[in-house]
Amino acid sequence: MNIHVLLRRTLLIYIFFSFTAFTYADDSQIKAFFDSGVTYGLFGDDGLYCYPEYQEPRAEPPEDYIRPKVYKMYEERNGKDIFDLPPGYIENHIKDRVGDTVMVICSGTREYGIIDTVVYYWPEVEEGVVCVVRSLGAEISSPGYPPDIMILRKDKFYNGVFIPYVEYTFVDYSYLDLKDSLKAVMIDSYVNHMISFYDSLVNKAYYARMITALDRFEKLKETGENPFYTTSARCYGEKSDIIPDTLYMVYSCWQNSEGCWMTLLKIHKEGYQWIPQTILEPHRDVTTSIEFNCAFDLDNDGVLEYYINNSIYQFKNGELKLIHGGPFIGDI
Known about the structure:
Blueprint: H1 3-16, E1 23-24, H2 28-33, E2 38-44, E3 47-50, H3 63-76, E4 82-83, H4 89-93, E5 101-106, E6 109-121, E7 128-135, E8 149-152, E9 162-168, H5 173-204, H6 208-223, E10 230-238, E11 246-256, E12 259-270, E13 273-285, E14 292-296, E15 305-308, E16 311-316, E17 319-324
Parallel strand pairs: 1-17
Antiparallel strand pairs: 2-3, 2-8, 3-7, 4-6, 5-6, 5-8, 6-7, 9-10, 9-14, 10-11, 11-12, 12-13, 14-15, 15-16, 16-17
């Protein structure tokens, strides 16, 4: 083995197991920003939908009105996924009104939109009240699934520092070397984790299935066989005409379709060399991806907040701290 590769792998192993764990930050001012006037969005057959801002106490449309509409829609199979709400419901229970202007933060952009209608959304899996939003500027297109779409009302419009993030695809020898080293570390960390997991189960309850699983991972450790059927590396950085010298690298390894073994690195280029720093340790994650949308300074204190996977984070002392957790798509 090339001595350079060996040294890099040793460095990576040291970095991976010298991490600081993910923590929650206490920032009441930013949390207060999201208490009202901020919801999230998704894309449906009629374009961009956003979850409404409800009046309190929140009340859902009556079932005896909604169910017949849903059953009729299902029987007709006409491709529509929205229908009107009962008379008086919007006026009595929803703060949003048709014609209201909103700010849409999506795919590293911020555009103004207008609420076109407020309707009931029924896509067969999730359902609920949504506002249909039409863009007042550039077209707002789907960034994939799940999309990260934040909707701000007038009293929460943000016009401060705004840094779009985009995904970069590139190839160079140092980057390929880094990915090879990373794959070896991810295999080792995953197999060790599973051995520890099944060993603890066997000690608590002696089940043949647990013994079989433990034996399988112990054999993988001996042989060095790759337990992942696919891996991916995605790099995000500030939007620029050239690839920035500092990127956030999400490395994901799939052992099955239910989730993946994932890590997050900050990589910095010095000369021709990419130098890694671990932000999140290798861990199982059902989201399968960490997507950087943009950075801003919501409380104007000079410390950037990052919009990642429908949630707000800060980097403090090399740690990724959750400030505000947004909903999963469909969590209406």
